[in-house]
Specification:
20% of the residues lie in helices and 30% in strands. It has 873 residues and is of the alpha+beta class. Strands 29, 30, 31, 33, 34, 46 and 47 form a 7-stranded mixed beta sheet that branches. Strands 2, 4, 5, 8, 9 and 10 form a 6-stranded mixed beta sheet that branches. Strands 12, 14, 15, 17, 18 and 19 form a 6-stranded mixed beta sheet that branches. Helix 8 packs antiparallel against helix 11 and helix 11 packs antiparallel against helix 13.
């Protein structure tokens, strides 16, 4: 390649008059002086190239032309022109042409185009801001050609002085109001007029706008604003006024801020306090008016002081503690509870939580010689502890106060008396029995108080023997299957009732484990007036089903126990299940809309509920189990807010709402039953899919009753006409399409649970992730809940109704028994906020039977109000 290049260069050098390489310009562009608006034309010729590409340059930049033409002057000799049809000032400059050949650039001699015309401004007047009567200068400059150029000034429409050579400076003695000005530039070709400028009189700025709190971090508030009209003068400083809105208005010292930026961080503010602020900005004239007040509240913080004046009143029956409430300035938030900790014999006891500044503890003697402290707690945490107070009887205190009068011999006697009294009380405390039995402290983490069942002894009659499965009269296969999950009744201590229904109830209970720990459980108890072996066998069949279930979305059986009844041949079966802290899904959804404190449920949360149920049902279908009663009421929420499918077999008997009686055999959940099941009483996995679609509708409708306005007796006719559940408000189309596919009249056309799982997983993955926001923690322990109707499944959560919200999540309030109705379960969210796993909240007093009945009446509003329609077959 290099050889060929040298050969071509040698050939080119054979031409005479070349520039060493055979390429030379035979014509160069000439200088031109053109009147503005006329034609200008530059020419260039080159010799030594067969087909050259000649490029025109202007002031070092390449000129692009679409109409450039080449003229042949001979072999390897070419000429071209660059034309400007109407020359303007921007066309003036230096021009030349270039040719490239084998990486080498050949350039012609340069030429100039000079444009003659009206003057061209190089400096036009700028706006001026000034004080009234203050002198200032204005400058204007313009150039030709042709020269010379003269400048004439106009101020407020009046000519100022005579024309002067450019550049020109006009001295103005001062003005008292805003005025317009411009300059004229004149030469032999004509006159040019500059832009019009304005002389502004400086004034006070206007108030800032857009004042807002940008963000709040702890007690530091970032404030931002935008300047208003500046008064034709730069703003230099802004003043921020802050006022604390409380019982008495407190003014905070003004803060000066250099601007820009128009932003300031307000520090050292009090927690959980209401503040107002406004902003004023200043220029060299003075300050602006203040902006309107804006209001904000600082977040809560841990209380800064301990409750004062902790006192007690001790009797044999009760210990009463009282202390002074904290001021708002000390609480730094909304009071959630007071935490009381106490020690006995140097050993720390379980901390207790109270919603008011008073506590009544039964069994006063057991607190003798104990030390108590109290601290205030809000959603952030608990404050410092109060000084410890030693609990002693008043007589002992009085003797302590007069102890300086008794010395010598009586001192030893006093010490011996106190020690003897302490030992006696400790013995009584350990031996004392309640109506449930002896009180003992649970070593487990789940409960703070449990009971060992009390036994009544008869001198003449032996203790009744433990009941066995043989005494039930059930078939051998069922007996064999349940034998290894049978739990002796003596290990089970029943607590207060959580819910009851037509065929049984659910009670809170404590189960003593093999390692002596105690586990809190829920127990389904068949009604005591049921004496039929068939009813008992039907109850135990549900337990037999559940025995083999091992899935995170299906409730598991802990065991069964048999309650021996005096004078009855058959014992009462009890099914022992896990204690579900957050209740059934239907009550949960209702409370999100209708509770005293409604709360938002994100779309991700609702879809996760559906996905949990679908996974549980897919597991059951893989075990060849047909649920037959899938609904939101039969789905439970555990402590991790995971949904577990529950209530197998017995559920079709124990519910009283949303059923009609088919013949005299059973009650059916009409609004959840598939079309073919209503017509032919046939149940399959596909009919469970139909019920799953209705459950999806319940979730998206936040617990509404399906088919509103349609009676149970009309459901079959409604469905056979092709009608289906309508799309709930705010329900996405893709979610409604999934649930609608579950209601195909042809069972085989409905999706399988595996397909539903894949659809819901894809839907959940498509949603943008958002942080789960737990509901605001709050306390409202005005009263307790009574027993509920229905099937009692709500009892698995301790949530007997929606009317009595408690800590953190309002559906966790449980009905209390007479003996411990002032003890309420606290959810884990509050325990974390307060700083520890404290299992109980104690109210100041118990709940009367009349109040419990009132709670039962209020619970009716949260249940389906449709009556059963009896159809005789």
């Amino acid at each position: 390649m290099r050889v060929l290049l040298w050969i071509q260069i040698l050939l080119l050098q054979s031409y005479p008059g070349t520039c060493g390489s055979g390429v030379r310009f035979t014509r160069n562009p000439s200088n031109l002086t053109v009147t503005q608006g006329n034609l200008a034309r530059l020419g260039c010729a080159i010799e030594g190239l067969s087909e050259p590409e000649i490029i025109w340059m202007k002031d070092g930049e390449k000129l692009y032309s679409t109409d450039q033409m080449y003229i042949t002057l001979g072999d390897h000799h070419w000429e071209t022109y660059h034309s400007v049809k109407s020359v303007q000032q921007q066309d003036a400059g230096q021009y030349w042409c270039e040719v490239e050949f084998h990486g080498l650039t050949f350039s012609s001699e340069p030429a100039w185009i000079t444009v003659e015309g009206v003057p061209h401004f190089t400096q036009e007047p700028h706006d001026v801001s000034t004080f009234p009567g203050i002198p200032f200068n204005l400058t204007c400059a313009a150039i030709g050609p042709p020269d010379p150029v003269e400048v004439l000034w106009w101020l407020g429409g009046i000519q100022e002085g005579d024309p002067a050579p450019s550049p020109s400076v006009l001295h103005v003695a001062g003005v008292n109001s805003s005025v317009k000005f411009y300059c004229e530039a004149k030469n032999a070709r004509g006159i040019s007029v500059s832009r019009t400028g304005t002389v502004y009189i400086k004034s006070l700025p206007s108030a800032p706008v857009g004042v807002q709190v940008l963000w709040i971090v702890e007690n530091n508030v970032t404030l931002t604003w935008k300047p208003g009209f500046t008064g034709h003068s730069d703003l230099s400083v802004c003043t921020i006024q802050v006022s604390k809105r409380s019982g008495k208005k407190v003014e905070v010292p003004d803060q000066k801020v250099v601007v820009p930026p128009h932003l300031q961080v307000l520090t050292s503010l009090n927690s959980f306090s209401n503040y107002s602020c406004r902003v004023s900005c200043s220029n060299e004239v003075g300050p602006s008016p203040f902006s309107p007040w804006i209001h904000f509240q600082t977040p809560e913080a841990v209380p800064s002081a301990a409750p004062r004046n902790l006192t007690f009143d001790l009797t044999e029956q009760r210990l009463s503690l009282r202390w002074a409430e904290l001021d708002e300035e000390e609480l730094h938030g909304k009071l959630l509870a007071y935490k009381v900790q106490w020690t006995l014999g140097g050993e720390g006891q379980e901390a207790l939580l109270f919603k008011e500044n008073v506590a009544h503890l039964s069994g006063g003697g057991r607190f003798f010689n104990s030390t108590f402290q109290v601290s205030a707690c809000n959603v952030v945490g608990c404050g410092p502890w109060s000084p410890p107070v030693l609990v002693m009887p008043a007589s002992v205190q009085a003797r302590g106060q007069r102890s300086h009068l008794w010395v010598g011999v009586l001192l030893g006697l006093l010490v011996a008396t106190i020690v003897g009294l302490l030992l006696t009380l400790l013995v009584k405390r350990h031996g004392k029995e309640t109506q449930f039995g002896s009180v003992f402290k649970s070593p487990g983490a789940e409960s703070s108080v449990s009971f060992t069942a009390a036994r009544s002894f008869n001198r003449h009659c032996p203790d009744p023997p433990e009941s066995s499965l043989d005494s039930l009269g059930i078939n051998d296969d069922l007996k064999t299957k349940l034998q290894d999950v049978l739990i002796p009744e003596r290990l089970l201590t029943l607590g207060h009732m959580l819910g009851k229904g037509e065929f049984g109830s659910v009670r809170e209970a404590y189960l003593k484990m093999e390692d002596a720990s105690v586990q809190k459980v829920a127990v389904k108890v068949l009604k005591s007036d049921i004496t039929s072996s068939g009813d008992i066998e039907q109850c135990l069949k549900e337990a037999a089903y559940m025995k083999d279930f091992h899935h995170p979305n299906v409730i598991q059986l802990i065991g069964i126990s048999l309650h021996r009844r005096p004078g009855q041949r058959l014992p009462i079966p009890m099914v022992i299940l896990p204690f579900m802290k957050h209740g059934d899904l239907h009550t949960f959804l209702l409370l999100s809309r209708l509770g005293d404190e409604p709360f938002e449920l994100s779309l991700q949360t609702l879809i996760q509920f559906m996905l949990d149920i679908a996974r549980g049902m897919e597991y059951l279908s893989s075990k060849s189990i047909i649920h037959r009663d899938l609904a939101a009421r039969n789905c439970m929420l555990n402590e991790n807010m995971t949904v577990c499918v529950a209530d197998f077999g017995l559920s079709k008997k124990i519910y009283s709402g949303d059923y009609y009686r088919q013949g005299s055999v059973s009650k059916l959940p009409v609004k959840w039953i598939a079309l073919e099941s209503l017509a032919d009483n046939v149940y399959t996995t596909q009919s469970d899919v139909w019920a799953f679609g209705v459950t999806m509708w319940e979730i998206t409708a936040r617990g509404q009753t399906p088919y509103p306005g349609v009676e149970n007796s009309e459901i079959y006719e409604y469905l056979i006409k092709g009608e289906r559940l309508k799309q709930p408000p705010d329900c996405r189309d893709d979610i409604y399409e999934i649930m609608h596919s579950c209601w195909s009249p042809v069972p085989k056309c409905r999706p399988s649970f595996l397909h539903l799982i894949s659809q819901l997983e894809a839907l959940l993955a498509s949603l943008s992730p958002s942080p789960l926001k737990e509901p605001l923690l709050y306390v409202n322990l005005e009263g307790e809940e009574g027993e509920q109707g229905g099937d009692g499944l709500e009892g698995l959560s301790g949530a007997a109704g929606p009317e009595e919200p408690t800590w953190g999540i309002p559906w966790q309030c449980g009905a209390a028994a007479d003996q411990d109705r002032d003890w309420l379960m606290a959810p884990s969210g509050v325990a974390l906020a307060i700083g520890g796993d404290y299992r109980y909240i104690i109210g100041p007093c118990g709940t009367s039977e009349e109040e419990e009945e009132a709670v039962q009446e209020r619970d009716v509003m949260f249940r389906d109000e449709e009556e059963d329609v009896v159809i005789n077959v």
